[in-house]
Here is the input.
Amino acid sequence: MKVSATSIPLTDLDVDFLLLPLAQDALGTMRATLAETLGPMAERAMQDFSGEEGEAISFYPDGARARRAALIGLGAADAVDAERLRQAAATGAKLAVEREAQNVAVRLPAAGPPSETAGQALTEGFMLATYRFLKYKTEPAAFVEPDRLILHVDEDDRDVRRGAERGRAVAEAVRTARDLVNLSPDEKTPTLLARAVEKLGKKHGFEVSVWDKALIEEEEMGGLLAVNRGSPEPPVFMELTWRPERAANETPVVLVGKGVVFDTGGLSLKSTKGSMDQMKADMAGAAAVIGAFEALARLDVPLYVVGLIPATDNRPGENAYVPGDVLRMHSGKTVEVLNTDAEGRLILADALSYAATYRPDLVIDLATLTGGQVVALGSDTAALMTNDRDGAADRLTAMEAAGRRSGDWVHRLPMDAVYGKLLESDVADIKNVGGREASSITAAKFLEHFVDYPWMHLDIAGPAFLATEKPYRPKGGTGFGVRVLVDFLRDYASPKKVR
Here is the structure.
């Protein structure tokens, strides 16, 4: 989708659809302005418009070149933030799609955040709301995506243009992550996923190195190898690198993504409905890391970042690992397996252990790790946890702030030592499950055994894959995690540049 900004008179804007987000407080002053620029039909539409958040009224302007227009409510002006603009743009995007509009303009409202933030938010909301995954449809799609988005401002504004371009890059990276999650499992075996990542690296300018099974065995990644034992497909381990010349850091920030390309539960077999039937999404953490690298490279973020993705499926093949097995992990620790469906933490543990070789500034992992996250926080907010090292409170605050700014919401959970006692094993150093209570926290406490550096864990099980559509998040893969990572890392590189 092409994205641009213009300050030509509203009456001369030649588009299929003109979207007009308005705060309730602005209705009085805007009524005369819109009547003058868009004609009597705009004034009539305003008579039925309250400006409440989410409200939308379409009309045919008779005083301008735009063929259709819509008033979109923002609610109270003092409540208009970036997320509300994303949702308003998403409302407008759905109207535009219904009317098969190809050229769509959005007027920046007077209320809300600074113009650069507003430009990014409106672009993201519109582009994410128009996403459809149609790869496997054999009939011609009735859906036609708009091919151009224009942001309208009263005066030429470079900040709006910067925001719009950033929004486009971030939205396209989120769409990349969505595509990867939505792929049929037979088209994203570990090897095929690695090939797709290599292509993205060549396209966008980040490096990709792929280990085969022999190298994984040489590195003694016992967790990844155990989970892979029941599969006919070999595992891979991917290293992604973005290191611009002007990087702000000498040692990297490391992103780790869970790459279970399909999870049957292994011998602890999942039920199908509402569980195994959604497990092509169990690599959504990996997809978020991949999408983040695309955005970091396209935005030329001045930060040295490494991505680690252990990838395998988890199947109950004839050589599958079993409850009772004791695994020796990459770190040398031993793990008693009590549930083969708690496999994600095993492959992440090896990746987190390997991350120490980089002497990282910070490590962040993302994983669709536990059903407990969904119970605790639902499908809008990811669980956030960290280890008790210097700067822990600041890390949590910064990531939560990035979540609020980006719209990928995260919320901290406790990591007190008492939860770790639930992982004590009679036969090994630790066991791989801690029971039903506080399962998201005990999963994080398991991972904590394999880190000796500043670390944050994001459990994205709920928001990564949806059964019910949300304003700019479709059914299926959502690409959750890309935006919060990019926002956090931009701020990490240049704290004064992100608001």
Q: What stands out?
A: Residues 2-152 form a domain with the Leucine Aminopeptidase, subunit E; domain 1 fold (CATH 3.40.220.10). The radius of gyration is 24 Å. The chain has a mean pLDDT of 96. The chain has two domains: 2-152, 172-494.
